């Protein structure tokens, strides 16, 4: 357990909890602890799905600007790969992941949210990539993940201006997937994650890998990735259990072992 980031597990759902008052600024230490928590959640058999949560007040208001302000070009060259590592590690979790966003999710905080599979926003949420106002650009995946979520033109507009979007606009442009009252968003995200407890873990992993890897390549290569993942599942106990249950009892009644 880190000083500012911890993994809490309950009934098969893991919560990666950011807790660095007042605004969950993402310092180098927080980045390192996020990476560690993501890797732990990924490796634990008692975690079926993951919620990323910053608390009732704020998700994460961005990078620790005071920490970065004194860095030279040479120092940032040495650290830049670490700046992307924590969002890469979150995105690399092979299980379903969801961000529960309250308050601000700006800069690095927005990049954390975009590294999860889906995003649930509170009705008071504000999201954005305001790095341009500091004379820089997003550096933890924002230019790439934002454009994949909302399209290149909208991503450029948001990055060029640095403006914030509220929850309803974020929903309209595809930056978030659901909007809920602020006092319900974490519960809704946990409920979403809980549906995968006891599910076909290897099939979920294959589906996530096929989508994520497919986005990185041309269509034909993506189809080959899908084919390999699809056929590989015929070696699993869950495939056998799922199909046998369907034949005998109809859909939705299978019991999976995750193997």
UniProtKB/TrEMBL annotation:
One GO biological process term: fatty acid beta-oxidation
Reactions performed catalytically: a 4-saturated-(3S)-3-hydroxyacyl-CoA = a (3E)-enoyl-CoA + H2O; a (3S)-3-hydroxyacyl-CoA = a (2E)-enoyl-CoA + H2O
Keywords: Lipid metabolism, Lyase
Pfam families to which the protein is assigned, alphabetical: ECH_1
MF GO annotations: enoyl-CoA hydratase activity
Parts forming coiled coils: none
The name this protein goes by in its record: enoyl-CoA hydratase
Source species of the chain: Aeromicrobium chenweiae
